[in-house]
């Protein structure tokens, strides 16, 4: 009874929503400890708290095929079928990145092609790191935009075969989706315009005085050659239109010079502090080291306790914000 889909659940792609996960993996999830202890009688309201406790994503791992908590919560969402507004709120969540990954994975499983592109493509701008557990049980770092790209283009993610969706090009030709505009287009245009401005030479319009001066110069050169018995060698002069160093290069050289001076100053300060510490250590009393160690340990314990309390209060405040968006009662400390 605990493993059955809710009575008023709608079929997804003509089948039971739980059947989107293979039977072998589904049976392993039913037998797992996390499913029996944490997912029993779990509702859409309590699912939010469990999703905020996630620390990594993944499918199954180990030789005996153990499911991860992420995959167990995905199957639980397929079983209880939360409302679409809750799933969209999961995807738009910015404070908890694993809640966003859970909502995106569920939307990719049950959503249509248009919904998948509409709600998942904005997540390409999320460049945060997330942890993923592989089949060997070890962890690896991936980026959120990389995970979203795999959801839209790969066939199997987290040991789950993803349903097929139409290509974006087909939907654009049918006028069901607008052409995708990348956030990098504006930056690329700015860079190209800057390069064109740097490479474009400065051309001045000639004036009548310029023509007169050039003609007088040609006449002087002609008379000098005629009067000179030997032919003078041409002296190559520097072109007035030769491009000077670009402002970007000058700023880079100035930055390197400042960094070099800063490192030299830091090394001198470090040598000075090392000498001061050595002199203080030589004149230090025998019991001074013991008293300083006790003082540091007591200060460290107070500081760690204060940090732990502030961290707990901050997590409770963030969870209350998410629960308020979903219309749930706030948590109390």
From TrEMBL:
Region (Disordered): 182-333
Biased composition (Acidic residues): 184-199
Cellular localization per UniProt: Nucleus
Transmembrane regions listed in the UniProt entry: none
Biased segments, Basic and acidic residues type: 268-292
Pfam families: PRP38 (PF03371)
Main location per the UniProt record: nucleus
Keywords: mRNA processing, mRNA splicing, Nucleus, Spliceosome
Annotated Basic residues bias: 230-252, 293-305
PANTHER family: PRE-MRNA-SPLICING FACTOR 38A-RELATED (PTHR23142)
Role this protein plays: Required for pre-mRNA splicing.
Family: Belongs to the PRP38 family.
Protein's recorded name: Pre-mRNA-splicing factor 38
Organism: Limulus polyphemus
């Amino acid at each position: 009874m605990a493993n059955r889909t809710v009575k008023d659940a709608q079929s997804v792609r003509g089948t039971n929503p739980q059947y989107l996960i293979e039977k072998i993996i589904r049976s392993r999830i039913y037998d797992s400890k996390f499913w029996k202890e944490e997912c029993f009688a779990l509702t859409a309201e309590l699912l939010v708290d469990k999703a905020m406790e996630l620390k990594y994503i993944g499918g199954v791992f180990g030789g005996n095929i153990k499911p991860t908590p992420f995959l167990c919560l995905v199957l639980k969402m397929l079983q209880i079928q939360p409302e679409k507004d809750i799933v969209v709120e999961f995807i738009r969540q910015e404070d908890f990145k694993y809640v966003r990954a859970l909502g995106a994975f569920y939307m990719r499983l049950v959503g249509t092609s248009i919904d998948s592109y509409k709600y998942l493509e904005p997540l390409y701008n999320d460049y945060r790191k997330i942890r993923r557990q592989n089949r060997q049980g070890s962890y690896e770092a991936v980026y959120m935009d990389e995970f979203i790209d795999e959801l839209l283009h790969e066939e199997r993610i987290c040991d789950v075969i993803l349903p097929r969706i139409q290509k974006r090009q087909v939907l654009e030709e049918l006028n069901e989706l607008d052409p995708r505009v990348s956030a990098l287009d504006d930056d690329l245009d700015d860079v190209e315009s800057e390069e064109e401005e740097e490479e474009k030479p400065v051309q001045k319009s000639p004036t009548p005085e310029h023509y007169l001066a050039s003609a007088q110069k040609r006449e002087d050169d002609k008379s000098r050659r005629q009067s000179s018995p030997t032919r003078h060698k041409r002296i190559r002069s520097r072109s007035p239109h030769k491009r000077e160093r670009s402002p970007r290069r000058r700023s880079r050289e100035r930055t390197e010079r400042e960094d070099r001076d800063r490192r030299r100053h830091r090394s001198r300060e470090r040598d000075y502090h090392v000498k001061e510490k050595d002199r203080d250590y030589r004149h230090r009393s025998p019991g001074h080291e013991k008293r300083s160690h006790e003082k540091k340990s007591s200060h460290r314990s107070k500081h760690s306790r204060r940090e732990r309390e502030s961290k707990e209060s901050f997590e409770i405040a963030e969870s209350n914000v998410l629960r308020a968006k979903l219309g749930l009662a706030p948590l109390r400390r």
